Amino acid sequence: MKKAEDDMRPEYQRSDFKKLERGKFFTEAEASMSVALLEPEIAKAFPTSKAVNEALHGLLSIAEQASRIISASSECQGKRGTAAR
């Protein structure tokens, strides 16, 4: 078995790693992302995080457009209903 020093690049010193704080940014990273378990057939269709995010952004966009259309339609019907009375 190789020693750990053999795997390190020459510019790194093992003594430098004693100064590091483990998990320093864990709280910030945890707050800014979430993990979801995908069913196998979904994971095949969206194999990367980027693919999943693009699909979900597209779905959100469609939902927002549909919401605007429904709201506009409701407002138009409301105006027509008051004019007819």
Structural features:
single chain; 85 residues; mainly alpha; 0% strand
Structure notes:
- By secondary structure, this protein is mostly helical.
- It has one domain (22-84).
- The chain is built from 4 helices and no strands.
- The chain has helices spanning 4-7, 26-32, 40-45, 49-84.
- The termini are far apart.
- The mean pLDDT is 82.
Distance between the terminal alpha carbons, to the nearest Å? 89 Å
Spatial shape: elongated
Largest sheet composition: none
Q: What level of helicity do the residues show?
A: 55-70%
What is the overall pLDDT average? 82
Which series of helices and strands comes N to C? HHHH
Q: Catalogue the unreliable spans.
A: none
- Rg over C-alpha atoms, rounded to the nearest angstrom: 27 Å
Structural class by SSE content: mainly alpha
Q: How many strands?
A: 0
The proportion of residues in beta strands is under 5%
Overall tally of structural domains: 1
Question: What topology emerges from the helices and strands here?
Answer:
Blueprint: H1 4-7, H2 26-32, H3 40-45, H4 49-84
Question: Quick gist of this model?
Answer:
Helices cover 62% and strands 0% of the residues. It contains 4 helices and no strands. The mean pLDDT is 82.
